[in-house]
Structure formats: structure tokens, C-alpha cells
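In this supplementary section we document a worked example of the pipeline. Step one takes a protein sequence of length 129 as its only input; no multiple sequence alignment statistics are reported here. Step two produces a three-dimensional model, which step three serialises into C-alpha cells for compact storage. The input and output of this example are shown verbatim.
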Amino acid sequence: QLQLVESGGGLVQPGGSLRLSCAASGFTLDYYAIGWFRQAPGKEREGVSCISMKGDTTNYADSVKGRFTISRDNAKNTVYLQINSLKPEDTAVYYCASRLSTPLLFRICELSPTPYGSWGQGTQVTVSS
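The serialised model returned by step three reads:
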């Protein structure tokens, strides 16, 4: 069974940090671009970061640039999202998703959720004092 599992969320004070993990089981992430998305109550799901198949391309939403860092360790079949300088507006459920790369797309990743086919169940991040 193909599955993505997020972990690492929690309650943190403003200015704090968390490291989210997205672990794959049942398939290898080697051939997939991975995106991180978040959804706050009453808001649409938004892309915050993504990383291409080999990790040579990363993209970030303007709201998280300079604070979030995405990385991948294909040997561990895991993608990470380091989130620093957390703000209350970062509070949301964070999801990771995978998109199969093709010869034309292997250096591309998208912040739109549309191309992504497999999704994890999400991990809650709450930023509050």
C-alpha cells in the first residue's frame, strides 16, 4: 500500500521551530517531486514548499521564504520541512504530497496541489503563546 505519513507537528510558541517529516512506505520517493501544503480552518489549502525529484529545485511560498527549508533524504525515503521563526498565522494542518516525475518534469516542482496524486493524513502545527 502506497502511503505518506507526516510527523513532527505540535504546539510551539511564536518564534519557535519545528521539523516536519514526510515518510513514504510502499514505494520509493526517488522518482517523485514532493510538496508541502497547509490548510488552516476556513481557508483553502495552500502550497508552502516543494522539492524536485533529485532535490535540485525547491520552491517556497512568499509567506514562508527565509523561514522554511525543504530537504530530502532519498536513502531514508523521507522529505523534511524545517520551519523556523514560527508565527501564529502558520497554524494549520500540514500535508505532504507526491507527484511522479517524468523526463520532462524531473527538475520541476509545483506549489499548486493539482498535480499531486498521493497525500498524507496531515500533522497539526499550532503556534500560540
